[in-house]
Specification:
The protein is α+β, with helices and mostly antiparallel strands. It has six helices and five strands; from the N terminus they run αββαβββαααα. The protein has one domain: Beta Polymerase, domain 2 (2-Layer Sandwich).
Length: 171
């Protein structure tokens, strides 16, 4: 039996960057001895792009040794631990009752998943036509996989990989 993981896309909200800055400040204070960088990732980080109504954040920690204490702090502040994702030392956390909700990933320096996320984000920011194509794909897939967020996400992989390949050719 498949569990429902609904896909909800909303129009771009100009308050998302401000929400990220507030959350970034709060997380930096909370995890001060552990965190190197806090980056806004995902569709809410791209001007004009429809997105799931939650802020995605990558937090780079000083080393793998900081994962356990950072996890304890996040869980102690109401974040739900979602486990190590992507087989790439990326630990996910959700704060569903945040305003807006947050999905935070903690990871060590030089993480490949994080590197790709930043390249993808920066490419969409610099190429509005690619961002528009991505928005159209997201809307189509959200309608097709309305109750299956995992298939929605997996179905974007080909597009994401093509953008990453294009971006690496432009470097």
């Amino acid at each position: 039996m498949t569990t429902k993981n609904p896909v909800e896309l909303v129009p771009y909200d100009p308050d998302w960057p401000l929400a990220f800055e507030r959350i970034r400040f709060e997380l930096a204070e909370l995890l001060k001895p552990h965190v190197v960088a806090i980056d806004h990732i995902g569709s809410t980080s791209v001007l004009g792009l429809a997105a799931k109504p939650l802020i995605d954040i990558d937090m780079t920690l000083y080393s793998l040794d900081h994962i356990t204490p950072a996890t304890e702090i996040l869980v102690g502040h109401g974040y739900e631990a979602r486990g190590n994702r992507y087989d790439d030392d990326v630990w996910a956390f959700m704060l569903r009752h945040g305003t807006p909700p947050q999905r935070v990933y903690i990871l060590p320096p030089c993480n490949e998943t994080h590197r790709k996320r930043m390249i993808f984000r920066d490419h969409l920011r610099a190429h509005p036509e690619t961002a528009a194509a991505y928005a159209a794909l997201k809307q189509k897939l959200a309608a097709k996989f309305r109750d299956d967020g995992d298939r929605y996400t997996a179905s974007k992989a080909e597009f994401v990989n093509a953008v990453l390949a294009q971006a690496s050719r432009l470097e």
